[in-house]
Design a protein that fits this description.
The complex is a heterodimer. Chain A is α/β, with parallel strands linked by helices. Chain A has a single domain (6-248), classed as Rossmann fold (3-Layer(aba) Sandwich). Chain A contains ten helices and ten strands. In chain A, the strands form two sheets. A six-stranded mixed sheet of chain A has the order 6-7-8-3-9-10, with helices on both faces. Chain B has 13 helices and two strands, in the order ααββααααααααααα. Chain B has a two-stranded antiparallel sheet. In chain B, helix 3 (67-98) runs parallel beside helix 6. In chain B, a hairpin with a 4-residue loop joins strand 1 and strand 2 (63-64). Classes of the chains: A alpha/beta, B mainly alpha. Chain A binds chain B through residues 54, 56, 60, 82-84, 86-87, 90-95, 97, 99-100, 109-110, 113-114, 159, 162-163, 166, and chain B through 101, 172, 174-175, 177-185, 188, 192-193, 196-197. Bound molecules: adenosine-5'-diphosphate and magnesium ion. The site of magnesium ion has 3 residues of chain A, from helix 1.
Chain lengths: 253, 288
């Protein structure tokens, strides 16, 4: 696939649970080799959107409309097989969830459950993931120590590394630095800038400064609606919508 | 009402609740005190070793060894855990991870009903159905350790299930989502991530289930056979510590009566140890 290929395309995506509208006619495109930022206050539907993309949104009485193409396949249908999709579309969450095993086992967990057992392949994938998340130097000589011993920032990078070990096409990150100190945050942002050379990255953050720092294009969600989307430089300097301007300036709430 | 009045009322209510809370603690203290005052002199007289480690129990001849009953209570508790533990755990996993909300709404109340059935009914069912089954197919008198373990295994299900369901539900969905997002299936997620995260709660559930098994009396009296010896096979009849107290308290007097209270002391330690282990594991969960 060439650069600038569209990998996620939302066309009038609406999501309701019972009477509650969670997403309302969302239209956007996310391309390879870019970091696409999604910002918005809590409860505006950012997480729900990511979960739709890798088919993990579940709720009793949910109703979907529109089409959401991920790598060319509409994932809103009932007959989508989520497991292969999630191997191509990895998700990293706000709280790092390291599995209760060693660092190495964490890294290769996703491959092992696919039935890959070859030691060489596993080792290589682990190293690739760690290097991608800029964690390799810090943990290379203690790969077999429990992952829970790592610091919060390292754990979050391990989660990114673990996702990258699967060689996904798309990496979804849901507020990956919300619980971290500035230095860990910086490291993760650096890692993301590296990763976009080969992947598409969707970064959800309620920290507008972070979106401004690292994203190429971005979107502003508010109460389930997409208020504005465009090049980050443009959105942050000359926003088209007053609401966007207010949010970025912190005049919200 | 003025602000001062409201404050005074608050204070009063607070005091009342404090008294109520302490009265339950106080009654526990009284029970313990009573058992110890009644039982300890006997242990003093007979000697701890002859009481705990002798298998000879014949009160009329002055022998008060409860070792056989300790062993029986121990095995029956382990056995109940072997039957009830896996069954209860699988049931909880099914309820939390694999069933729909509608199915849960049917199964959970049914399980709670199981806890409400009087133990004499379990004993009765055991005598009528299970005892003949064991006797005819496995041999022995039917009234046995094995029969008791099966019935107790069923009786501890509500305890095991309700606590392990709670601890599975308490596992944050973020763990499951993390595993899913690495491409794990529901079952892979359950046994590699969820169970691990709920481990301490599940152990608590099993230990409290054991506490329930060691304390059960009525059903065991009806199905265990109550023989006074160390069981050598699962098909041998047994007498547990609780059965011993219940069977003999009607006519015991003097040193014999004291010996039954002393048996109570041993049970008290048994149950306290189990509860302490359970609390320990429960606390570890909170710390994590
Ligand atoms: N499974 C669900 N069932 C019902 N409502 C949900 C569910 N998940 C999220 N919501 C609701 O959708 C809205 C958007 O939530 P979310 O996508 O988590 O927002 P954000 O990530 O932007 O904070 C919230 O009001 C939330 O309560
Ligand atoms: Mg969110």
């Amino acid at each position: 696939m060439s650069a600038k290929t569209v990998v996620i395309e939302a066309r009038d995506v609406s999501l309701r649970v019972g009477e509650k509208k969670i997403l309302e006619r969302i239209n956007l495109e996310i391309r390879r080799n870019e970091i696409f930022g999604i910002m918005g206050p809590a409860g505006s539907g950012k997480t729900s959107f990511l979960k739709l993309v890798n088919h993990t949104f579940r709720a009793a009485g949910m109703a979907l409309e529109g089409a959401l193409y991920v790598l060319g396949e509409d994932v809103l249908g009932e007959d989508v097989n989520p497991t292969p999709l999630r191997r191509k579309v990895s998700m990293v969450f706000a709280t790092p969830v390291v599995l209760p095993m060693s660092i190495f086992e964490n890294l290769v967990y996703g491959l092992k459950i696919q039935g890959i057992r070859d030691k060489h392949t596993l080792r290589e994938a682990a190293e690739r993931g760690l290097k991608a998340a800029i964690l390799w130097e810090e943990v290379r000589d203690r790969l077999h120590k429990p992952a829970q011993k790592l610091s919060g920032g390292q754990q979050q990078r391990l989660c990114i590394a673990r996702a990258m070990a699967l060689s996904p096409e798309i990496l979804l990150l849901d507020e990956p630095t919300s619980g971290l100190d500035p230095i860990s945050t910086f490291r993760i942002e650096e890692a993301l800038k590296e990763l976009k050379r080969h992947h598409a990255i969707v970064l959800v953050s309620n920290n507008t400064k972070q979106i401004a720092r690292v994203s190429d294009r971005c979107a502003f969600f508010l109460m389930g609606e997409l208020i504005e989307t465009g090049k980050t430089a443009q959105v942050f300097t000359v926003p088209k919508e007053k609401k966007t301007d207010d949010y970025i300036a912190g005049r919200f709430g | 009402m003025s602000a001062a009045d409201i404050k005074r009322k608050e204070k009063l209510i607070q005091r009342i609740f404090l008294v109520v809370a302490f009265s339950s603690l106080f009654s526990l203290f009284l029970i313990a005190l009573f058992i110890f005052v009644e039982g300890l002199p006997m242990i003093w007289k007979v000697g701890l070793k002859d009481f705990l480690l002798s298998t000879r129990w014949s009160p009329t001849k002055g022998h008060f060894g409860i070792f056989a009953m300790i062993v029986s209570s121990f095995w029956v508790t382990i056995g109940a855990l072997l039957f009830g533990g896996p069954l209860g755990l699988m049931c909880s996993i099914f309820l939390v991870e694999f069933s729909s909300a509608r199915m849960r709404a049917v199964i959970k109340p049914a399980l709670e009903l199981l806890a409400g059935i009087p133990s004499v009914v379990y004993g009765f069912l055991g005598v009528v159905y299970l005892v003949p089954l064991v006797r005819d197919y496995l041999g022995g008198p039917g009234l046995s350790l094995l029969t008791s373990c099966i019935i107790l295994g069923i009786m501890i299900l509500p305890t095991v299930i309700s606590i392990s369901v709670d601890s599975l539900v308490a596992v944050p969905d973020s763990y499951r989502e993390a595993a899913f997002s690495l491409g794990a299936t529901r079952w892979q997620t359950t046994h590699m991530v969820t169970l691990h995260a709920a481990k301490s709660g599940i152990i608590t559930a099993l230990v409290l289930g054991m506490g329930r098994a060691v304390g059960e009396t009525m059903a065991v009296i009806m199905i265990a056979g109550n023989a006074l010896k160390i069981p050598l096979s699962p098909l041998d009849p047994i007498r547990t510590l609780t059965s011993n107290i219940a069977l003999e308290m009607g006519y015991a007097s003097g040193l014999h009566r004291q010996a039954l209270f002393a048996t109570g002391i041993v049970l008290f330690f048994f149950v306290m140890a189990l509860n302490m282990i359970a609390t320990l594991f429960a606390r570890r969960k909170v710390l994590k």
